[in-house]
Amino acid sequence: xxxxxxxxxxxxxxxxxxxxxxxxxxxxxxxxxxxxxxxxxxxxxxxxxxxxxxxxxxxxxxxxxxxxxxxxxxxxxxxxxxxxxxxxxxxxxxxxxxxxxxxxxxxxxxxxxxxxxxxxxxxxxxxxxxxxxxxxxxxxxxxxxxxxxxxxxxxxxxxxxxxxxxxxxxxxxxxxxxxxxxxxxxxxxxxxxxxxxxxxxxxxxxxxxxxxxxxxxxxxxxxxxxxxxxxxxxxxxxxxxxxxxxxxxxxxxxxxxxxxxxxxxxxxxxxxxxxxxxxxxxxxxxxxxxxxxxxxxxxxxxxxxxxxxxxxxxxxxxxxxxxxxxxxxxxxxxxxxxxxxxxxxxxxxxxxxxxxxxxxxxxxxxxxxxxxxxxxxxxxxxxxxxxxxxxxxxxxxxxxxxxxxxxxxxxxxxxxxxxxxxxxxxxxxxxxxxxxxxxxxxxxxxxxxxxxxxxxxxxxxxxxxxxxxxxxxxxxxxxxxxxxxxxxxxxxxxxxxxxxxxxxxxxxxxxx
Length: 512
What we know:
alpha/beta; 19 helices; MGS-like_dom; six-stranded mixed sheet; 21 strands; Rossmann fold; Cytidine Deaminase, domain 2; multifunctional enzyme
């Protein structure tokens, strides 16, 4: 008896080639529906339409076509049970050997700017998941192919096993299929949660494994990299031009670099150097090479072995400058051919292109014992027109520009966070200290004499005036902070005595 295959796919990658091999090499009969049947027929592949096979027409504009006993009986039959064999015979049903199904492009649809609720609902597949789950459940007897990447391996299985597949192969494909439908349902859940946040009481986390990483933060920790959803976005969609495979720490640092570089528009050349998720150098410049050199010189010691993020395509001068030291990774939206040749001489250097640096998740998820926490990512940045100048001395337009730069930087430093900047370049970073006084001291020590006439940003309010007085003694010109302490008046008084500018933003930017 001929093998029987059911082909009904949204992603038609490789489906013609698979259909040809099934018919010509293995003498399969193909049952197919809708656009898949048309694609196969156009390629000259003999196909029996689902409606002809079941004797029931497609109805409701194609919403109902495969939901029929002759389809699902042929998928779900346990051929080891005599009662199932009898049911198949009595109802003129043939068991399927292979089911090739993938789902409507729900995630692609909702990613479109003009997608309406009606558009999204129409892309919720019903028959597809039913066939996929039924086939995966019955993997002892049916092969489910839900990913075009598995077609070649399936054909090789047929060649090696006299037209059959191994149980191990079928079980792997079943696991893959269940993962796909789980991710699909979670994407729908997340979408409806966005449509109506007040009624959302479920949050699903799922992903497809991209890679088993060599190890986690330390060599004794196992780690893996997963892509959320079925559509590659963010780092899963990045192009790695060269270099060793990415490590766990690389990816964590790259994400920190991506988040801070997104603060700066692409028409302002900006470079960020990250070390252990904290920026050790951030700068803007007239050219990308100038911005990079300023960021590097801000803390050249820490920059060694760091991660660099750029908001413009890498050009030859910037590539030349970066190639002079050891860096772990570079990420930019693009890279010129000349720059590729320069960086290519450092074969271990990881160079990634992420065309959309803003393609990050809106949610921040942290695991805790027995569950997880979800918050919106801190995408807020307060502009000068919303600030409150609280000192007698008023800022100039140049002061406001510099304070905005410092404010953008400090929100990406681990709390307690202090950033000292001048000429839109970081001079000193105080990160992750248990008290704000310690962070101020570290940042000033790093800035040294350059603190004279510089700008200081604090991610949260100063609880006392001691740090303000320390800043004044070091020559800091202006301070930006959220305000909100019960002792704000003490800090304002100290700033006035020292002739400092101080502005309150009214918004805190803790980063734990």
